[in-house]
Design brief:
With 768 residues, this protein is mainly beta. 4% of the residues lie in helices and 54% in strands. The radius of gyration is 27 Å and the shape is globular. 47% of the residues are buried.
Length: 768
């Protein structure tokens, strides 16, 4: 094959970059030559081709003209060791962060800095989540446990002209293992510290020549590991859980040209809400106070959480002459109850001494805040019909329609921690929301030459939302207070892929994205009003290179991007009470780079490296928010130390020039795997590490609410035998046991949230 000089130069630079990061043990061609000369030589190891469905077709990842990361296989197994929930994805893909203020429920996703810190149960997010082709709109649906999953795909940048909802920041896509026409399965059981017991398994069996069934189950348990030293406390023990989930799929394929896949799934989780810990942050820093004890939580409030979700979907496929027709019908339902002591401590003004757990720290609690949020009503219907070409012609096309219908009700209840028995207060608030969305979308892809392929997509979206908030303070009532929005949008994207040679592709993409108006009404008093943020619109540019190197023993993907969002939806806290307000910033910009590397270092060693840089900025000269403790407390001082530009009123801060919250500039992840034949099996060790730099916890800047940089690692050591049928392994997550403040509550009593401590354990797996 003749390679032009400029192409050779580009591939040489890439190869030099890879070998600098991962020194390979030999030149690419040497093993092939050895194999030709010596029939006993080991076969050449090469990276497997990664197939993704980011563009709704099964394609080589290298041919997809956008920034995509796929997580599967050993890496996915290692990251979920120890019963981790979906937050294990944080930092494991460039530009991806995941966090939660609710614990194992309500995860919040961020891609390239764009996310949403809103903690209301109807919060919308700019990052879409798609599970088995079904959009998961409600935050309560987004934490479904990850088990028996083929692959996770992270699609960065606006999405919407190919499937589902319009997502201005990106999409995270989960694909479960599907039924096949053979008997197979697996079972895993594990145990660890804190009384952790995890079990999962799947059984696949053909029912006939035309039907196959796959049953997948998971059960996770952990004992309480945090305890309340307060006498006569309402809740004494925390952070234990029972989390059970199931998925049953039936594949019916009566003919070669038609298939129907039925999917029924459910989850039942009982545990605790996130622990908000009062007075754990050192004044003037974001350090933990001296003597902090993870296992102790002095509180006078209650804490418990229940989440039940269920759903079903039907995916039909007809292979017609020259085209394929898809119909995807989905239904999802959720019930949620979460109660927590949001003030994070004891007492209403001055509490009794908090004991040796926080020596020397004041026990100041500015007010009593214990609340419960309920989702007593929720259902979601989705319908997508998509028609696509299936020929090998230069011109390929796809067209579809999408419909979304959601109804939710939210109840917010407060409790009186100072009254005997901690009863429910008479006052409470309710919100109802009905949202409907319909869209028409399509794409055209044309192969102009053997090297150049171009694609363009278009989407029209219509969104309607009706919202009503009420507050009841018997005998008085506030409301009903209605909000309504009716918005329309046309978004588009265009991309191109150019093949420098058979192993190297250049790509470029420009895309627009859109998010419908958002509403919330967590009313705190009869005078409060609900808030609404108008629709946001994103414009994104990216370009990059994807290449297989060194005879496919190394692979690299590098992307540079830039975006701007008009009328960016943001969430402002009150600075003193448990409230949110939705606002729009005139503009937000972001730019950065992303890198993915994988390499076979030798017969026994494999490694991967991911990295991203994200520089975001809010640009709105007139936008300001209240800061923590917008009124002096009884000591005459504020709880935190704001550092940004003061706003026009006391205890406010301007947002112009600040980065997006929970958005670290640098993120990296690294894995290294060693495996070697031993006896009749394989001994292996797999370590993974993620690092992120500091970030602001809220929209404004304060010394106490600037999360410190964090490095976390995991290790798994195991042995497989009998051709991989059996496996035993030991694992550790957060092996350095680094504990620090990662989030906070926007009060004036330095209430923080810390990350998970070290988890260790062992697993046994059998495949059949």
């Amino acid at each position: 094959m003749h390679v032009r000089p400029n192409r050779l130069f580009a591939r040489t630079l890439l190869a030099a970059a890879v070998t600098s990061a991962f020194p390979l043990y030999a030149l690419a061609d040497a093993p092939d030559q050895a194999t030709e000369q010596d029939s006993t030589a080991k076969p050449v190891q090469r990276l497997e081709t990664v197939i993704v469905t980011a563009q709704r077709r099964a394609e080589n990842l290298k041919d997809v003209p956008m920034s995509v990361t796929a997580i599967k296989g050993d890496k996915l197994d290692v990251l979920t060791s120890g019963g981790a929930d979906i937050r294990f994805l944080a930092g494991r893909s460039p530009s991806l962060n995941v966090e939660s203020d609710y614990g194992r429920s309500f995860p919040r996703f961020y891609i390239r800095g764009q996310g949403n810190t809103d903690f209301d149960l109807n919060a919308s997010q700019p990052v879409g989540l798609v599970v088995d082709d079904i959009v998961q709109e409600s935050p309560m649906l987004k934490g479904f446990p990850v088990f028996d999953v083929d692959q996770v795909e992270v699609l960065r940048g606006p999405q919407g002209t190919l499937f589902g909802r319009n997502s201005p920041a990106g999409v995270i896509k989960f694909d479960s293992a599907k039924p096949v026409f053979k008997t197979e399965g697996y079972a895993v059981v594990g145990a660890g510290n804190y009384g952790t017991v995890n079990a999962e398994g799947a059984y696949n069996m053909p029912l006939s020549d035309t039907m196959a069934l796959r049953v997948s189950l998971q059960s996770q348990h952990r004992n309480d590991r945090v305890h309340n030293p307060q006498p006569n406390a309402y809740t004494k023990d925390f952070e234990g859980y029972d989390d059970n989930a199931a998925r049953v799929q039936l594949l019916v394929k009566p003919t070669r040209d038609f298939s129907a896949l039925f999917n029924v799934h459910a989850r039942d989780m009982k545990g605790n809400a996130t622990l908000f810990r009062a007075n754990i942050i050192k004044k003037g820093t974001s350090d933990l106070v001296d003597g902090f004890d993870y296992g102790s939580y002095p509180t006078d409030g209650g804490n418990n959480q229940t989440l039940r979700t269920s759903g079903a979907n039907l995916r039909l496929r007809w292979d017609l002459d020259g085209m394929t027709l898809h119909s995807i019908t989905g239904y999802e339902h959720a019930y949620f109850y979460s109660r927590g002591d949001v003030d994070g401590g004891v007492g209403a003004v001055y509490a009794p001494p908090m004991g040796p757990n926080y020596p020397g720290q004041p026990a100041f609690i500015p007010f009593t805040v214990e609340t419960a949020d309920l989702l007593p009503e929720h259902h979601q219907y989705t319908q997508e019909v998509r028609l696509e070409s299936n020929t090998k012609d230069p011109l390929q096309w796809m067209a579809g329609v999408f419909y979304f219908d959601e109804h939710i009700r939210i109840d917010s209840i407060s409790f009186n921690t100072l009254a005997p028995g901690n009863p429910q207060n008479a006052a409470y608030a309710t919100q109802t929301q009905d949202a409907k969305s319909s869209a028409v979308f399509g794409t055209l892809t044309y192969k102009l030459s053997e090297q150049l392929k171009v694609r363009g997509g278009l989407r029209y979206t219509s969104d309607k939302k009706d919202f009503v908030a009420q507050r009841f303070e018997p005998p008085q009532t506030s409301g009903p207070l209605p909000l309504h929005s009716d918005s329309h949008n046309i978004s588009w994207d265009g991309s191109a892929t150019y093949a420098l040679d058979a192993d190297t592709n250049l790509f470029a993409r420009v895309a627009t994205g859109y998010r419908a108006p958002s509403m919330q009404g967590r009313l705190n008093g009869l005078a409060d009003k609900p808030s609404m943020a108008g629709a946001e619109k994103a414009l994104s540019y990216e370009a990059g290179i994807k290449a297989d190197l060194l005879d496919r023993r190394a692979r690299v993907s590098a992307t540079a991007f830039q975006y701007r969002v008009k009328d960016k939806q943001l969430t402002a806290g009150s600075g003193t009470i448990n409230m949110n307000q939705l606002i729009n910033a005139d503009k937000v910009t972001g730019q950065g780079v992303e890198l993915d590397l994988q390499a076979i270092l030798s017969d026994d060693w494999r490694a991967s490296l991911g990295a991203s840089y994200n520089d975001t900025e809010i640009k709105d000269a007139n936008l300001f928010v209240q800061t923590c403790g917008n009124q002096p407390n009884t000591n005459g001082v504020n709880g935190c130390t704001p550092t940004g530009t003061p706003g026009p009123f006391p205890y406010t801060q301007k947002l112009n020039g600040l980065p997006l919250p929970r958005s670290p500039k640098w993120q990296t992840n690294f894995t290294l795997r060693y495996s070697h034949p031993l006896a009749d099996g394989e001994l292996y060790a797999f370590t993974d590490w993620s690092y992120r730099t500091e970030y602001n916890m809220f929209l404004y800047e304060a010394k106490e609410y600037r999360a410190k940089a964090l490095l976390e690692g995991g290790l798994r050591v195991g042995y497989k035998w009998d051709n991989g049928k059996y496996e035993v392994a030991a694992f550790a997550r957060n092996i350095t046991n680094r504990i620090q403040v990662v989030a906070a509550i926007d009060f004036d009593n330095l209430t923080g949230i810390v990350n998970e401590p070290r988890n260790i354990g062992a697993q046994f797996r059998v495949n059949f």
